[in-house]
Amino acid sequence: MAVTTTATLGDLVTEDPRRARVLERYEIDYCCNGQRSLADAAVEAGLDVDEVSTALDLPDAPPAAPLRQLELAALAHDIVDTHHAYLWEEMPRLQALVDKVHTVHGANHPELARVREAYTAAVADLDPHMTREERVLFPAVSKLEKAQAPVAFAFGSLAEPITQMLAEHDVVGDLFKEMRALTGGYAPPEDACGSYRAMLAGLEEMERDLHEHIHKENNVLFPQVLELEARVAGV
Q: For position 234, what pLDDT does the model report?
């Protein structure tokens, strides 16, 4: 698919999810900062715009239907079933690995103390964040979509919780960026044991999944929810 450099990163990945992997290789943030144009993002990263654009021009059609074709409730269910389910299962397993590796290798790798702090902080943010989405925000989105009319929520406009969710995404995204930097891009040191390597692989996988997770919310679900709320309110 042809790539327009003025298109936003979020739109480019929504059109073809395979592009997420390309942007990951260039370390371009397409989720929390998905509102930037490809041209602006490439320039900010010190990259050649044409090179990145060419890399994103993938052959054949994307393998999946565009996310924007899904109903809002269906997209919310996809996020819960795919990304929340993964995090609920993986967060405690990875926490145990992070703690173990810090205990065993912390003396030779002092950066592991901060990796442990950052990961623990990320989990502490993600746990209540996902709970509020599953119990409050996503049911409200489904209710609004079914009603196709103004709905009175106890918290007011859906813009209120969405604004909070966006801010929390930024916090978690920054924590994983810090962990990536601390570990040299999750590269195992020469003295890394099997647990150390498993920890780094787990952190990298979780960061990648979070990028896809946050992209679906920031760049697809939330904008459509706000658009629907404004439309039914006659704004």
A: 80
96 and 168 within one domain: yes
My answer on whether 33 and 145 are in the same domain is: no
Residue 135 lies in a domain: yes
Q: Tell me, what CATH number does 150's domain have?
A: 1.20.140
Beta carbons of 64 and 17 less than 8 angstroms apart? yes
- 3-state SS, one letter per residue, for 90-148: HHHHHHHHHHHHHHHHCCCCCHHHHHHHHHHHHHHHHHHHHHHHHHHHHHHHHHHHHHC
Q: Please tell me whether residues 75 and 46 are part of one structural domain.
A: no
The Cα 142–Cα 45 span in angstroms is 38
- Cross-strand pairs, 8: 37
Q: Using CA atoms, how far apart are residues 136 and 192, in angstroms rounded to an integer?
A: 42
Tokens of 64: 């999946």
Q: If you write DSSP's letter for every residue of 63-94 in order, what string do you get?
A: SS--GGGS-HHHHHHHHIIIIIHHHHHHHHHH
Question: Contact 228/144 with Cβ under 8 angstroms?
Answer: yes
61 in any annotated domain? no
| Residues 147-198: tens digit of each pLDDT | 999 899 988 999 999 999 999 999 999 999 999 999 999 999 999 999 999 9
